[in-house]
Structure to design on (288 residues):
């Protein structure tokens, strides 16, 4: 099981860090994927400090510099199996259902609180700006992220946006990628090591120069660098069972932001939806 070296260093040095260094360390702890994809200058802009301060803060944690910190972060993101994650989560909870419920709620609260941080809010606003000009938005998600991707596409459609889901696995994904083209934008829900579908999707997006908004808390930094915006969304505590509440919150915030930029279209679409529903309700009564 990979060691969470950053968490260990933060715990050991927290009492000796300056307030600024502590703020930098907390940002890195809460935004690991973003840190992996960012330079010291980019991190400084996000945190509201200087790149020299970022480097000094990283060194205060016991790392030689940002490259060593990134290597530690990447090593800590090596995935375990779902069974291992559940086993560790249940070990934390013991055999008490109430304690397990508390653990789930507390974990979700921590993840949503991280989204409320100024840096995460700024990333969501940046994602809205990237997606707004698109003629069509495609949402990628597989496994447990698949239903979330479908829900996001549904909400996009209700806001008057052309949207489609990319959720096929293996070579079946190729059919879903066939009609990608200029004017498209991608929202990609992807965690852990880059699997073949994610790698293929990023390659096609790069070939077509399509903007990508990546929703993750752990993905290979070489892919994360290819996204216009990285939304750092936690799925729970490290090496514990994945929880998706914060992902849902981030997606709904993103979609509401898009609706706000074109409120007339969103309202017209919902009025049309209500008219269609009324017609269908009338049809059911007639048939019944």
């Amino acid at each position: 099981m990979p060691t969470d070296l950053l968490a260990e260093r933060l715990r050991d040095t927290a009492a000796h860090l300056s307030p600024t260094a502590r703020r930098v360390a907390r940002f890195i702890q809460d935004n690991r994927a973003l840190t992996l994809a960012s330079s010291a200058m980019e991190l400084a802009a996000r945190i509201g400090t200087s790149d020299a301060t970022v480097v000094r803060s990283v060194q205060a944690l016991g790392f030689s510099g940002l490259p060593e910190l990134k290597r530690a972060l990447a090593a800590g993101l090596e995935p375990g199996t779902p069974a291992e994650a559940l086993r560790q989560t249940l070990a934390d909870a013991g055999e008490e259902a109430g304690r397990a419920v508390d653990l789930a709620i507390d974990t979700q609260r921590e993840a949503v609180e991280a989204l409320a941080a100024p840096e995460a809010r700024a990333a969501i606003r940046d994602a809205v700006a990237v997606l707004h000009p698109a003629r069509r938005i495609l949402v990628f998600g597989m496994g447990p992220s698949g239903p979330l991707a479908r829900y996001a596409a549904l909400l996009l459609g209700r806001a008057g946006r052309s949207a489609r889901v990319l959720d096929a696995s293996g070579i079946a994904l190729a059919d879903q990628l066939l009609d990608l083209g200029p004017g498209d934008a991608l929202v990609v829900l992807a965690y852990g090591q880059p699997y073949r579908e994610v790698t293929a999707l990023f390659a096609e997006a790069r070939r077509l120069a399509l903007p990508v908004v990546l929703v993750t808390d752990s993905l290979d930094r070489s892919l994360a660098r290819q996204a216009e915006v990285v939304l750092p969304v936690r799925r729970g505590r490290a090496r514990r069972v994945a929880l998706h509440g914060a992902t849902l919150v981030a997606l709904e915030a993103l979609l509401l932001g898009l609706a706000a930029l074109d409120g007339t279209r969103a309202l017209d679409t919902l009025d049309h939806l209500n008219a269609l529903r009324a017609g269908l309700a009338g049809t059911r009564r007639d048939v019944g």
